[in-house]
Design brief:
- The chain has about 575 residues and is α/β, with parallel strands linked by helices.
- β1 (about 5-15) and β2 (about 20-35) form a beta hairpin.
- It is globular, with a radius of gyration of 26 Å.
- Residues about 535-555 and about 565-575 have low confidence and may be disordered.
Length: about 575
């Protein structure tokens, strides 16, 4: 029997915290990756997935990291004890890595061509002319449209999907034997996610690669992986083939992960809800080319209009660049726009900053990335109470009590109010952002992708929190998301945007069960499991369920065959003994 391509054996990883103290973050984990095999490493944030991946290439700071036990073997050679010269031959050449956030990983000062050329010059010794042909070929292969024009582009000029594709091209230029993909689809639209997953599948087959795929998205893991290792608090709690993990999970934590998909119904609407926000003929233009005597403008939001009632949640869905977040910023009056914005019967479109101030406390926002939207120099109490200082005249003791009350309301320990954002997890930071918005007791809360970078278990907690707060305070939400399962669970009305325009809008039932446009149907096709309509049978849902039934039947047969194989091997071993 041939040895695995990569073998992690009883590995423990610890970090030095001072002169003598050592904090262990990964404990005695083991797994193998065979040639042309994909292993998925899944678990919540902080479980040790990324630390394990970085240890394979020894990318952790060597002055701070310690490996108390175990080893990492690549083609039967130890990577932990390999000298730096040997490691440089492995990194990039034989093992490549796609990092989680391409905007951070790509150099903002270098063009796409320069960054890809560095890889070819360093690892394959190619000259610039030959390298350009290779770069164009691989950019085209990973699905970059018009690759010639993208060569001179900088990372900030690319969309999220394009940046991720450039990272993939950079990783496969050297034809590696093992590709490590660390959350390569986080915060991408469902359509772009599907394209990236399909691309990775094709590249794996073409280049005969093996893959270590790190993710908290189990629906993606189900489509891509051969084997799955489930990590919790630095330990692998379950490790088996994909069919066994998804059909017969043994560990309680694995079962929790599989049951963490968003579900349930939106909060019931009030009996006679009035219109809180009314948007009509909203247009947003940006200058794309500025010249001496003229400038060229481009509309990124075109003639948009919708209404939000009291106690209602309106979801805005669409791909990146469709104008979702721009619409929200225009409603908040944070960017210039034309049209009519009416809040609680008051036109606010043309108000001055001073006259707009009373409405600021009534309309609050929770941004996509809480880490970048929270001031790292402020502690939690300062962050949450900042709005009170601006909008309310309260004594210091009253402000402190208000902070304590709202932290308890969103599920945070008030004793942690003197800590800083860097000391909290992603889910806790999002709760801080929600507390900062809610302390002013707003009537409308704009949620711009509030759960896109969070684990599914944390997502479910945040959505449950939003529902309970809405029911208690009759809040209205404008919920922007590319996660259609979350939209179905939370929203009463849905607005579908494409290229800056609303192409379809209506009730949740109408959009999900009777979509009119092909674009909406395409978006819904990426749902892992279409929602079931109560008391009504839908043809397309029936078809999916039948397909899944047969798929589960095939999976079950594979599990049974695996069980027979294991039992037979155990019996043979007993006979030999």
């Amino acid at each position: 029997m041939s040895s695995p391509l990569l073998s992690v054996q009883d590995l423990s990883i610890a970090f030095k915290c001072g002169t003598q103290t050592i904090s262990q973050v990964v404990s005695n984990i083991s797994f193998d990756i065979d040639e042309q095999e994909t292993l998925a490493l899944v678990g919540e944030s902080g479980s040790g997935k990324s630390v394990t991946a970085l240890s394979i290439l020894r990318l952790l700071h060597k002055e701070q990291v310690v490996y108390p036990t175990g080893d990492i073997l690549f083609e039967e050679k130890s990577l932990l004890s390999a000298p730096d010269k040997e490691l440089r031959q492995v990194r990039g050449n034989q093992i490549s890595m796609i990092f989680q956030e391409p905007m951070v990983s790509l150099n903002p000062l270098h063009t796409v061509e320069k960054q890809l050329y560095e890889v070819l010059a360093l690892h394959r010794g190619m000259h610039r002319h030959d390298a350009r042909c290779e770069i164009l070929q691989y950019l085209d292969r990973v699905g970059i449209k018009d690759p010639k024009n993208k060569l001179s582009a900088y990372p900030h000029q690319l969309s999220g999907g394009e940046r991720q594709r450039v990272m993939i091209a950079m990783a496969i230029l050297t034809h590696p034997k093992l590709l490590i993909a660390d959350e390569p689809t986080t915060a991408l639209d469902v359509s772009v996610q599907a394209q990236i997953i399909q691309l990775l599948k094709e590249l794996k087959n073409e280049l005969n690669m093996s893959m270590l795929f790190i993710s908290h998205n189990l629906s993606i893991v189900k489509k891509l992986a051969d084997k799955v290792a489930v990590m919790q608090q630095g330990e692998i709690v379950e490790y088996n083939n994909k069919q066994r993990i998804f059909l017969r999970p043994e560990h309680k934590y694995t079962q929790t992960l599989l049951n963490s998909q968003p579900n349930g119904e939106p909060v019931p609407l009030p009996d006679t809800p009035g219109i809180l926000l009314n948007v009509n003929h909203l247009n947003v233009e940006v200058i794309v080319k500025k010249r001496l005597f003229c400038s060229q403008k481009k509309k990124i939001v075109n003639n948009t209009g919708f209404a939000v009632h009291q106690g209602e949640t309106v979801g805005i869905v669409g791909e990146s660049g469709s104008g979702k977040s721009t619409t929200a910023l225009a409603i908040l009056r944070l960017i210039k726009s034309q049209g009519n914005i009416v809040f609680d019967s008051h036109p606010i479109q043309n108000l001055t900053s001073k006259k707009l101030l009373p409405f600021r406390s009534r309309i609050q926002v929770v941004f996509q990335d809480p880490f970048s939207s929270l001031n790292p120099r402020f502690n939690v109490e300062q962050i949450i109470s900042e709005g009170l200082i601006t909008h309310k005249k309260l004594r210091q003791s009253e402000r402190e009590q208000a902070v304590v009350d709202i932290m308890q309301e969103v599920g945070l320990d008030p004793d942690m109010r003197y800590r800083y954002p860097s000391e909290f997890s992603g889910g806790q930071r999002q709760r801080i952002a929600i507390a900062r918005a809610l302390i002013l007791k707003p009537e409308l809360l704009i949620l711009d992708e509030p759960t896109s970078s969070l684990d599914h278990t944390i997502q479910k907690q945040i959505i449950d929190l939003l529902k309970s707060l809405q029911e208690k305070y009759q809040l209205s939400y404008l919920f922007i998301s590319h996660d259609l399962a979350l939209v179905y669970s939370l929203c009463h009305q849905v607005v579908v945007m494409k290229e800056g325009s609303i192409i379809e809008q209506g009730s949740r039932e109408k959009i999900f069960y009777s979509p009119e446009t092909e674009y909406t149907k395409t978006l819904l096709s990426f749902l892992d499991k279409p929602p079931r309509k109560v008391n009504k049978t839908l043809i397309h849902v029936d078809k999916v369920e039948k397909t899944e039934k047969f798929a589960h039947k095939d999976d079950t047969e594979q599990v049974q065959q695996q069980d027979k194989k294991v039992n037979w091997e155990e019996a043979l071993l007993m006979r030999k003994k």
